[in-house]
Amino acid sequence: MTTPATADRRRARGDATRRRVARAAADLATVHGLDAITVGGLAAATGVSKSGILTVFPTREAIQVAAVAEARRVYIDVVIRPALAMSPGADRLHALLDAWGGYLRAETFPGGCFVTATATEYGHRTGAVAEAVRNLKREWLDLLEREFAAEGAADPAAAAFRLDAYLAAANTRRELFGDDAELDRARALAAEVIDAAGGRHIGA
């Protein structure tokens, strides 16, 4: 007979396995892509048996969706939440830039920015994984647009597009050339977008 305490322990073990596998899947996705995730690869990366993985994630798609959810949790904790302590608008946007640069420099994911990597991989696709990836990117763009609107930008969507484009390019170049100077360049260019949105000019 299964007691409540036994059920709780099983649930806790299952939750721990889910988190472990989802994080490993998110890590692998930044290097090889979400499509490259396999149960065997995750078993090797985590030490969890294939049967143990399939107990908590019955399909490969479920693992991929969980990887996106885990990456979203990390992105919120590392990039977004610290910036929310700042005032809306320019202060918060600059804080987001700083946190994003720290997220890359800390090698939070081994292959760079999860959002950038998966957005490229899943363009023009449909299905649960593509929707999860699309929603993650949209959340980020919506946040930038809200902050540019708070700053008084004439076209918040255009300003958000430019800032996001600089960061995506910096991530791609950094991963390709292994040079953190790309992050510094993107930080400076993105800061100009923020300052222009508020009617300020660097050096004025």
Automatic annotation (TrEMBL):
Residues 38-57 bind DNA. Residues 15-75 form the HTH tetR-type domain. Keywords: DNA-binding, Transcription, Transcription regulation. The keyword tRNA-binding does not apply. Pfam families: TetR_C_13. PANTHER family: HTH-TYPE TRANSCRIPTIONAL REPRESSOR NEMR, TRANSCRIPTIONAL REGULATORY PROTEIN. This is TetR/AcrR family transcriptional regulator. It comes from Tsukamurella paurometabola.
